[in-house]
Design brief:
The complex is a heterodimer of chains A (459) and B (73). Chain A folds into 3 domains: 75 residues; 162 residues; 199 residues, Rossmann fold. Helices cover 43% and strands 17% of the residues of chain A. In chain A, the strands form 4 sheets. Chain A has a 7-stranded mixed β-sheet, sandwiched between helices. A 5-stranded antiparallel β-sheet of chain A has the order 1-2-3-5-4. In chain A, helix 3 runs antiparallel to helix 4. The longest helix of chain A has 20 residues. In chain A, 41% of the residues are buried. Chain B is rod-shaped, with a radius of gyration of 28 Å. Chain B is built from 2 helices and no strands. The chains are: A alpha/beta (459), B mainly alpha (73).
């Protein structure tokens, strides 16, 4: 039994892992909170309506550990890949925000509510967002305020507004702050015309002014809380936010890789060869989870799913490409989750005691890795030694494909045009040598006249 | 007396911590004030809409009566 190190903020329960399964202990305090939820079958209803993660009560005797007599143990469906809001594209954060609001409205209709509004409580199974924190549910008390409002603004609303109004990606800022983007910071960035919008005026400008005022002067919160917040107003606030978020669109700037699959430098015959090679490799193996490094808009991820792979997690550092890939995944209802990832600066452990949110390496557990037209961007553009890149890719999964792009290739020529050829180690011989140092070469497929080759490896 | 006051203060602090089971969440005073205002705005809009609709219906009825009059004769 291993306790999740990020599950500590709420004293009413804890997440733990046992035999590769995910469980949650609910203690006496948690039970008091969930009493109404259990009594009204809200857990089952929420699961059936696709709001809440699959959850079932399990018996304590299944475990060798001793539990207190009041404890309840629930088993949750295991999320294939835990991702964090700072790794999502605009459309993903928007989908998560709408899922949160929809679920909250659904619960209010059943006489229940949510105690917080953390974006970390939403996870993706393929393209679908799902709510994972059972202990966020409680009975709605007449006249209560939305305690998660501030958190919702910082975790969901503000990052979306930042991208939509200013074209600034929220990801790296979010990763640095963990709780999202502060309303006062956003208010300082937005200009007068941005604030003319009803929702931005109230949710950003006015809220930041009140927050400032409450810091500087002594506002008695108790007197405010005595006044009831009507349920009608509560629901209309959620609905208003929902409609506003639904209408938000990312302010797009053209990025290099967004149109890569249509504008790349290799021709159609080469692409056909590459597709055939990937198809053959995926079909002969029955992979459960595949990691597609540099997935772009998901061409090879989707191809892998079509050829027998069960789920694919795609990684790319171009947010527009990730957004496009996510929209393809939604359109075709795929078990494909693309996320934002910069291999030269991957997600590290962050939060309390540096263990609250896991690093990329902590979460990397794949059957197969695809690194097609990927490694030269690390070796040549970011100056990471080729041996380290090869070792890292092979460490991610026991089997996979790595594409070697030689210096004679047009893309590489362009990359080295200004920099000059300062990479003496970047040779095919060395590349093969490094694979052999970490595993074995199963096959080599020539895919282009320029000398691009796909290496199948095993370790 | 001072001691009694101090004990009372400690007691109130303890009570307020234990009764608030969501103490880990910072709801923010600003957010509560905003919600109170938004609640008031929403309620006002609802009331204004109600009276506006009543007023509209009143005039509609009045106008339709006037329109019908020539047919009645």
């Amino acid at each position: 039994m291993i306790f999740d190190k990020g599950s500590f903020r709420d004293q009413a329960g804890k997440v733990f892992y046992s035999n590769n399964k995910v469980y949650r202990i609910i203690n006496k305090e948690g039970l008091n909170r969930l009493h109404y939820i259990i009594e009204k079958n809200i857990i089952e209803k929420s699961i059936n309506d696709n709001y809440l993660i699959q959850t079932k009560l399990v018996e304590k005797k299944n475990f060798s550990e001793e539990f207190s007599k009041d404890d309840l143990i629930y088993e949750h469906e295991k999320i294939p890949y835990i991702s964090y809001p700072y790794e999502w594209s605009f459309s993903q954060l928007k989908a998560a925000a709408l899922h949160h609001l929809d679920f909250h409205l659904y619960l209010l209709d059943l006489g229940a509510t949510l105690i917080d509004a953390s974006a970390y409580n939403i996870q993706f199974i393929g393209h679908k967002p799902i709510f994972i924190d059972l202990l966020s549910l409680k009975k709605y008390e007449d006249g209560e305020y939305w305690t998660g409002h501030k958190q919702f603004c910082e975790n969901f609303l503000n990052p979306l507004i930042l991208q939509s109004k200013k074209g600034i990606n929220f990801n790296n800022w979010f990763k640095g702050n963990l709780e999202g983007i502060k309303t006062q910071d956003l208010n300082n960035i937005l200009n007068f015309t941005d604030k003319i919008s009803y929702n931005i005026f109230f949710q950003v400008y006015l809220l930041s002014k009140f927050e400032e005022k409450s810091k500087n002067s002594e506002i008695k919160i108790e007197s405010k809380l005595k006044k009831k917040f009507p349920k009608k107003s509560y629901c209309s606030l959620l609905k208003q936010l929902k409609n506003f978020i639904k209408g938000l669109k990312p302010k797009k700037s053209k990025t290099l890789w967004e149109n890569y699959s249509t504008t790349n430098t290799y021709d159609k015959i080469e692409e056909k060869n590459k597709i055939e090679c990937v198809k053959k490799f995926i079909s002969k193996n029955s992979f459960d989870s595949l990691c597609d490094l540099g997935c772009n808009n998901g061409l090879y991820s989707i191809l892998s799913l079509q050829n027998g792979c069960k789920k694919v997690i795609g990684f790319d550092y171009d947010l527009n490409a990730v957004d496009q890939a996510y929209n393809f995944s939604c359109k075709d209802q795929l078990n494909f989750l693309p996320i934002y990832f910069d291999a030269s600066n991957p997600s590290t452990r962050i939060g309390w005691n540096e263990v609250e949110r896991k690093s990329f390496n902590d979460r990397a557990n794949f059957d197969c890795v695809l690194a097609l037209a990927f490694k030269h961007h690390l070796s040549l553009a970011k100056n990471i030694p080729l041996d380290e890149v090869v070792m890292w890719i092979i460490s991610l999964a026991p089997k996979g494909l790595i594409e070697f792009v030689p210096k004679s290739d047009e893309t590489v020529k362009k990359m080295l045009e200004i920099k000059g050829d300062i990479f003496k180690n970047y040779t095919e011989e060395n590349f093969e040598k490094y694979i052999k140092e970490n595993g074995k070469i199963v096959s080599i497929t020539n895919i282009s006249k320029s000398g691009r080759k796909i290496y199948e490896f095993e370790r | 007396m001072k001691m009694l006051y101090l004990l009372l203060l400690i007691f109130i602090t303890l009570i307020s911590f234990t009764s608030n089971s969501f103490a880990y969440l910072d709801p923010g005073t600003g957010s509560i004030i905003l919600q109170a205002i938004l609640g008031f705005v929403a309620a006002s809009i609802a009331t204004i809409t109600l009276y506006w609709n009543k007023l509209k219906n009143f005039f509609k009825k009045l106008l339709s009566k006037k329109d019908k009059k020539p047919d009645d004769f």
